[in-house]
Automatic annotation (TrEMBL):
GO terms for biological process: fatty acid biosynthetic process. It comes from the Eukaryota. The lineage of its organism: Eukaryota, Fungi, Dikarya, Ascomycota, Pezizomycotina. Transmembrane segments: none annotated. This is Short-chain dehydrogenase/reductase SDR. Belongs to the short-chain dehydrogenases/reductases (SDR) family. InterPro entries: NAD(P)-bd_dom_sf (IPR036291), Sc_DH/Rdtase_CS (IPR020904), SDR_fam (IPR002347). GO terms for molecular function: oxidoreductase activity, acting on the CH-OH group of donors, NAD or NADP as acceptor; quinone binding. Keywords: NADP, Oxidoreductase. It holds the Pfam family adh_short.
């Protein structure tokens, strides 16, 4: 890998790393020798298990891995997380994977309470804005940074959830495109990955959880967290690519 895209020894912040997709992203970056600041909201047991597994599997990489409990819907908790990262890693992240997400399923607008709309936007959209503000000065000053948002097929109107979730993910894609233009001169790439129907996650444990939808996936199966992480790894190791939303949806539109 050219030095332009060398990530060994860098620090990545991955939010929602206790969940299916976030954990898969953590694994691929750990394998490539990236130090990690991982966040969870409620599932400390899963988080501890993931860190123990990574430290033993990639022991030769001598990784520094920290964990942080954060509700990304709360700005003060994100600020506290950055202070913990400063203290434990002596630097801000070089790579941000803003992956933590929430989406209670209400397909129809008449069932979506205003509070549900606000709550979903706080976690899925506003948090990414706050996270970018927490990492961007460091990335600018070293003229190297990678930012990846976890969007969704919902950003284009598809998927199984309602307009609250679509708005939060569509907002992410809009923010990503703007930031990619603004931050390119600082050698910071900004992209998103837009998955659909990824199994082995809290959102979709398996095909039986969404039988009719699963039956309609052209590829005939759910996607995997590992495949989603493949796209994230490609983006963080391909700095020339910026401003892109990568749909990962088994042929769904
Ligand atoms: N699965 C799919 O098919 C699919 C499709 C499109 C987009 N996505 C997106 O992919 C991302 C990861 O989801 P996943 O599929 O891997 O589901 P998951 O296994 O349920 O993971 C969700 C993660 O987000 C964390 N989280 C939830 N609410 C949070 C909050 N308020 N503050 C901080 N962290 C919070 C969870 O933490 P705890 O478990 O510790 O509480 C967990 O680590 C989400 O942004 C989701 O919208 C998933």
């Amino acid at each position: 890998m050219s030095s332009l895209n060398e990530i060994r020894g860098r620090l990545a912040l991955i939010t929602g790393a206790s969940g299916g997709i976030g954990a898969a992203c953590a694994e691929q970056l750990a394998e490539r020798g990236v130090n990690l600041a991982l966040t969870y909201a409620t599932n400390l047991d899963a988080m501890n298990k993931i860190v123990t597994d990574l430290q033993s599997k990639y022991a030769e990489n001598k990784l520094k891995i920290s964990i942080h409990q954060v509700d990304v819907g709360k700005a003060d908790q994100i600020e506290k997380m950055f202070q913990e990262i400063d203290a434990q890693h002596n630097q801000r992240p070089d790579i941000l994977v803003s992956n933590a997400g929430y989406g209670k399923r209400f397909p129809n607008v008449w069932d979506i309470a205003l509070e549900e709309f606000d709550y979903t936007l706080n976690i899925n959209l506003r948090a990414s804005f706050i996270l970018v503000k927490g990492v961007v000065e460091h990335m600018k000053s070293q003229r190297w940074g990678r930012i990846v948002f976890m969007s969704s097929i919902a950003a284009q109107g598809g998927g199984i959830n309602g307009c609250h979730y679509a708005a939060s993910k569509g907002g992410l894609t809009g923010m990503m495109k703007n930031l990619s233009t603004r931050l390119a001169e600082h050698n910071i790439s900004v992209n998103d990955v837009a998955p659909a129907m990824i199994g082995e996650t809290g959102m979709i444990p398996n095909a039986a959880a969404i039988p009719e939808v699963a039956a309609g996936i052209p590829l005939g199966r759910l996607g995997t967290p590992e495949e989603t992480a493949n796209a994230v790894t490609m983006l963080v190791t391909t700095g020339y690519m910026t401003g892109q939303s990568l749909l990962l949806a088994g042929g769904l539109k």
